[in-house]
Amino acid sequence: MPREFEVITSSCVGNEQLQKPPLEATFVPAGALSLHRITETTAPPTATELKLVRLVERVQRDDLVAFDELYRLTRDDVARTLYHLVGRRAELEDLVQETYLKLLKAVPSYRGQSRFRTFLYGVCTNVALMQLRWWRRRPEDPVDAPPDVVADGADPESAAQAAEAARLVHRALEKLSAKKRVVFVYHELCDMGPEEIAEITGTTYNTVRSRLYSARAEFTSAMSRMVEGSAA
Amino acid sequence: MMRHDETMLWQYAARELDSEDARVVQHHLTECPDCQERLADVRTAQGALKAARASMPTLDYSEVDETIGAVLALRSARAHGKRRWYVAAGGLVAVGAALMAFGWYQQRAGSHREVEPVAAVAAAPPAKVTTTASATVEQANGLTRVGAEQQRVEPGAPLHSGDVLKTAAGGQGLMRLSDGSRLKLNADSQLALTRVAADEVALHLERGTVLVGASHARRKGFVIHSQGLMVHVVGTTFSVATAPGGIEVAVAEGRVAVEPPGTLPVFVNAGQKARFDTQRWRMRRERLPTRAKAELMRVAASVEPAPLAVAPVPASGGARHEPPPAIANTAAKSEPQARAVEPGRTPAVAATVPTAPAADSRAPAASSPESEPLPVPLLASPVESVQAAATATNEPEPSSAPEEWAAMPAPAAAPAALPVAPAPNASRPAEALPDDVEGIFLMRAERALTRGTCQRYLLGLDELAADAKRGERAERARVLRARCFDASMKPNEASGEYRKYLERYPDGRFAEEARQILSDQ
Question: How many CA atoms lie within 13 A of B147 on its CB side?
Fold first, then answer.
């Protein structure tokens, strides 16, 4: 892992004389992480890793407006990720909130040892897993309401189809173990690469791959059973 | 090798294979109808994924924005005040906070009042980090707002969540919050209005003394932070003071929940005082000496216009001064009677008065603040109107009250019994806001449960659960404890709690849940 972040932390905010080498492709461009945006977002289209890291530094210096900025920039990604990880609409806002509160608490411990996005998604994973665990023990919880159809001005019908597809996908995901589910969602729905997923989950590339392959097989089976069931 | 083929199938369908491998798979497919079928399944799955990617429900972030904003404001105030409890070794420079609930203090301020009538605190759409103007200054003398430049604050000025106010030596400030509470900031003090909303108040006393008249409006909470210590208020009579090496919380009436930083909340009951060692945050409970209690009551009595006791003021506290300062608004009790009145609780007759103002109207304006206790005429009509207010929103203020409390946005919470929500979704809701410390505690614990952060409530829940006199509260507390253990992946402890529950409440509301869980084990 490149060590350029060490230098960053020693520079002042706003100080342009960063001695670090220019960041190469070590940070994940936002495009790779964001999904199709049919919702209006307030975040600028590209929140680069550098910008995020700088904001984190400011937060570490008690500049809490910077945290608010960080929140604005990443909120939609986080919400989308959580949505797919837990597979339910219910309490999603709570989960988003929890993620950021946890993040705020954890900011002091971020020292640039990994990409900030990795750090952030690590928190998301944590929050999602806890929620899944909770729900697992409470199978009688009310069934999730049908997701609101996002009003895509152009094509409400495809939005409805997307919503239905998501519903099926999420139900199928419930059949997977939490670990496989996380890997699968990150790879197949959030377009993350296995290396990053390994970092986020604190495992290895090979572990991620093997979980992914296994998850794919299980997911396929689960989907086909559901589809058959509804066709029958 | 089926699994291996399976892997390749997916990759093939997703076009992840290079041409050579793809050819191999293609060839295999021509000979293997099973794989063809499987490929079809894979394609279906991938199609669904692709469509699902585009789906995202619309979320309402307003509450999230507010909460995060409030947390940031608190942190910011703390950072600004440069007071971190773990740094405040010994030199607790006058971070004394004497908090007393005196309910109808505003009557006193009558003659000094220069404030314009309070307009309805219209809840403007929550702004990004702060909430709407939620407080006004009534009186100011040497009061400034801490910020980039120190701005002098004048009477009539609106205040917002996030504002930090400071008084000079010899200065003071008198404020009213949108929930009806009043604050008086003494000289040489600094107070952050971390969050001030009609249904929730959080203050941070960074230095000095603040007097608080906590209204009886229904709130999610009213908490005062000082050096990391949190004191939860619901209109009780108590004080917080710094003592050498620690903070002391003394309770004359009612019960206060105190949360030292990083440790579990505890209750301090009437007739007790607790000393919190700020170095190591250890707590020691002692009996509140009669003299100290009398003094507390006397001070409280001197600033509040005596009790609007419709019902007998509970005398479980012992020595009282006359008139007994029943902070508890003993006015009309509407339905939530069962909830608000608990055996053994001092301000037992705490009625849920949504609008403190209504009560104000009863006491005639006094001439000067803190001068003498006002005998409060027990007027029947205001009481009734208070009762009506329990279901209505804005109390049409009949009063000649000097303060125009009129358009207080009283939460029109229908006085329903607190829903004991077996589902973890208790946080959103239609449930009535509890008006006492335990109720609020339980509500928070319930919320924490849905977020998986309930551990810190375990001790307090145990206390509640063990106290048989608490009735429904104890029952709920026991179940919450069980669920919390469950959520924390401690099935043995959870079972233990459920068993305890069944022992005491074999036909209780949650008996079935308990039996089901126990039989699952």
Answer: 14
